[in-house]
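Data deposition worksheet. Section B asks for the primary sequence of the deposited chain exactly as it was used as input, without tags or linkers unless they were present during the calculation. Section C holds the resulting structure in token form. Section D is free text for depositor observations; keep each observation to a single sentence. Incomplete worksheets are returned to the depositor.
Section A, Depositor: J.P.
Section B:
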Amino acid sequence: MAEMYKIQWVWGGVAGTPWVQTTYWDAVENTDPQPAVDAIEDFLNATKTSASTAVYCNVDPQIPIVDSDDGSITGFSTATTTQISGSGSGDMMASANQVNVQLRTDVVLNNRRLLGHLYMPGRTAAIIYTNGRVDPSTVSGIDSVMPDLISGTGYQMVVYSKANHALAPATAGFTQSEWAVLRSRRD
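Section C:
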């Protein structure tokens, strides 16, 4: 049995929220989720200039401990969290448009690399580049702080495949220049 922390980032502040981003973190080698929560909050602080001032994000302080073999919750842990607000200028884009960060691993399952994704909602129109893609300076800015989000002293982000009941350490994160467009349940 491999245990992992299921840490949820809860975005709010505008109509259509909450938006929830779920990330998984190693709970075998790392017995305290606080360093992972601190890394998430550092990441949010480092990237908040591209987020609308109307948007904020909280990490849920109640953190389930999940058995990767069957996806069941085996317990809970807690962490101290802080609300992070966006500080970007300009109007917020439609909430369906989000920045997509691909999480890579070195594990292959069923002839495919195990990949994960982070979605960053609530971005401002100021980060739309002239060709309609994500502004290259935003891409490089997010990419520059990804290594510190993925791993550090006391934490390791993992990518979890529910279908295969497998997890693997995230080894890199790459911001996509194309927008992720997420459909709502009303579409």
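Section D:
Residues 22 and 126 are 26 Å apart (CA to CA).
The chain has a mean pLDDT of 94.
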